[in-house]
Design goal:
Layout (H helix, E strand, L loop, with lengths): L1 E5 L4 H12 L3 E8 L17 H14 L3 E5 L1 H17 L6 H20 L4 E3 L5 E5 L2 E5 L17 H4 L2 E2 L8 H10 L21 H9 L4 E4 L5 E5 L26 E6 L4 E5 L5 E7 L2 E3 L8 E7 L7 E7 L4 E5 L3 E2 L6 E6 L2 E7 L2 E4 L5
Parallel strand pairs: 1-2, 1-4, 2-3, 4-7, 8-11
Antiparallel strand pairs: 5-6, 8-9, 10-11, 12-16, 12-17, 12-20, 13-19, 14-15, 14-18, 15-16, 18-19
Length: 364
């Protein structure tokens, strides 16, 4: 099999490429240049896809003895990931750029080019399992629950799964991957995992958004509509946030208040008690299926609303224009723009972007 190994410059993708070589595949390494700021450098574990990452990926490819290339996907990344991130925040939603990157870049733009060049699959260092079932390939949770990345891969379609290769999915722990990298002489063996948003390496999302969206003073109100404070830009807030609220009026019960809603049209932020974050229903219209679609329009499942949250037992109903999910116990603080991934046991059924939510606590 001809395999295109996406090499980020980290330990996971390097070991994944190495395992693909060991499996006897014809492997070519590629690093995606997602920024045209050629001098961009990493700051410890912040950021990724920098010039240092490119050099680390090249050294790993040289060690493995495979061809290596750098492909410029910066324009596509800007249009499909960064601009989407900005427009979603401008609309008062909370996007997940990693989901968009997997959907639009790694398993769309990259995979399309790979197939055009005659490759059979794209290999990445993601922790997830691929199972060939009776009705096609299925996406499942990784063996290592702590490293499972099936949530951020929930956007993959059946066609994309057919050309995907995850060599690390059955690895019991990240420690084993690092030890293997060291044994292979890969210099990235102890390289820190990247975190935060890759295109905001300093971690100052609020400041970055202020430059892109602009900051305008507005009101913070409670659920009754009473003004309880002010803010310097609604884009800086997300549902469930507690810190950073400039409240001039304390709650009647003296308890802390949390962001319940962001309203970009009138530049207001709605706050209320923690109990009001309980969400009894979520729904969204933009959905995909990871393999076969559900046989029935209504079915029992588990739903995960964040990359590191626990799945919640629920019932999903597929309607003409949206998917509606009712959890057995309320979700905690779901924001429009988040991705909800639907599971059947360990198998990813599909995903949708949350458009609306219903609080489990009615307004008094």
């Amino acid at each position: 099999m001809r395999v295109l190994a996406a090499m980020s410059g980290g330990v996971d993708s390097a070991v994944a490429a190495a395992r693909a070589v060991d499996a006897g595949h014809e492997v070519v390494g590629v690093h995606l240049a997602l920024s045209r700021a050629g001098g961009t450098l990493r700051a410890g574990s912040r950021g990724c896809c920098t010039i240092e990452d490119s050099m680390d990926a090249r050294r790993a490819a040289d060690r493995l003895g495979i061809p290596f290339y750098v492909w410029d996907f910066s324009e596509r990344f800007r249009d499909d990931v960064i601009e989407d991130f900005v427009s979603e925040y401008r609309a008062g939603r909370t996007p997940n750029p990693c989901m968009r990157c997997n959907e639009k870049i790694k398993f769309a733009a990259l995979l399309e080019r790979a197939i055009e060049l005659g490759f059979d699959a794209v290999c990445t260092g993601h922790y997830a399992l691929l199972v060939d079932g009776p009705e096609g390939r299925e996406l499942h949770r990784a063996s290592d629950a702590a490293k499972d990345q099936s949530y951020v891969l929930g956007v993959l379609t059946a066609q994309q799964l057919a050309h995907t290769y995850f060599p690390l999915g059955s690895t019991p722990s990240k420690a084993i991957v690092r030890a293997e990298a060291a044994e292979r002489g890969l210099t990235v063996a102890q390289k820190p995992d990247s975190h935060d948003i890759c295109f905001i390496p300093d971690g100052d999302t609020r400041g970055w958004l202020a430059e892109k969206v602009g900051a305008e003073t507005g009101e913070i109100i409670d659920r009754s509509g009473a003004v309880v404070g002010s803010h310097e830009g609604a884009h800086a807030f997300t549902v469930g946030q507690r810190r950073g609220l400039q409240l001039g009026v304390p709650a009647p019960d003296g308890k802390p208040r949390f962001v319940l809603e962001v309203r970009p049209v009138d530049n207001r932020v709605v706050v209320g008690p923690k109990e009001a974050l309980a969400t009894a229903e979520i729904a969204g219209g933009r959905h995909t299926w990871a393999g076969r679609a559900p046989a029935e329009p209504s079915f029992a499942c588990h739903v995960q609303i964040r990359a590191h949250s626990d799945p919640v037992p629920a019932r999903a109903e597929v309607r003409a224009d949206e998917i509606v999910v009712t959890p057995e116990t309320p979700f905690d603080g779901v924001a429009p723009g988040q991705t909800a991934v639907v599971y059947d046991g360990t198998r990813v059924v599909g995903q949708f972007t949350v458009d609306r939510t219903v609080s489990a606590v009615p307004v008094a």
